[in-house]
Design a protein that fits this description.
This protein is 21% helix and 26% strand. Strand 4 and strand 5 form a beta hairpin. It is of the alpha+beta class and 156 residues long.
Length: 156
């Protein structure tokens, strides 16, 4: 089955980018680590490296395309023994994955509690509250070194 090349997230906050240039053409052999395209964000232009070996089967997003969403298939790589006829197998699951992949970020945003500016109590993680409230059983009171003054250092 052909391997999909997805639009990479070049930073944790990146949601979309511009596919500025393809450095490989359809039908060219690709090795793992080969630079196949250049992606442009608002901050930088980065190179996209192939993670698999094979032949660049089809370019799905033409160069110069702006606002390509992260994890959108941008190309397909054919592995040994595959031909252009196998490309239809890769594009149908991509549409299903894209629809399924867009739902979790919305759910994750819903789980983040909204804080009230200028008021309200600061929320703490449950483990942090417990750690502060309970003494650590591993810590024991030890006498200090020094021998005199009950284990405390005496001023000289």
């Amino acid at each position: 089955m052909p391997i999909q090349v997805l639009m990479p997230a070049l930073s944790p906050t990146m949601e979309k980018g511009n596919l500025s240039k393809w450095l490989k053409k359809e039908g060219e052999a690709i090795k793992s680590g080969d630079v196949i395209a250049e992606i442009e964000t608002d901050k930088a232009t980065m190179e996209v490296e192939a993670t698999d070996e094979g032949t660049l089967g089809k370019i799905l997003i033409p160069e110069g395309t702006a606002d390509v969403a992260v994890n959108t298939p941008i190309a397909t790589i054919l592995t040994d023994g595959e031909s252009a006829a196998d490309l239809g197998k890769a594009t149908e699951p991509a549409k299903q994955e894209k629809a399924a992949g867009s739902a979790p970020p919305a759910e994750a945003k819903a789980e983040v509690p909204a804080s009230k500016p200028g008021g309200g109590e600061e929320k703490k993680a449950p483990a942090a509250s417990r750690a502060v409230a309970e003494p650590d059983p591993e810590v024991r009171r030890k006498e200090g070194a020094g021998g005199s003054a009950g284990g405390r250092r005496a001023r000289s």
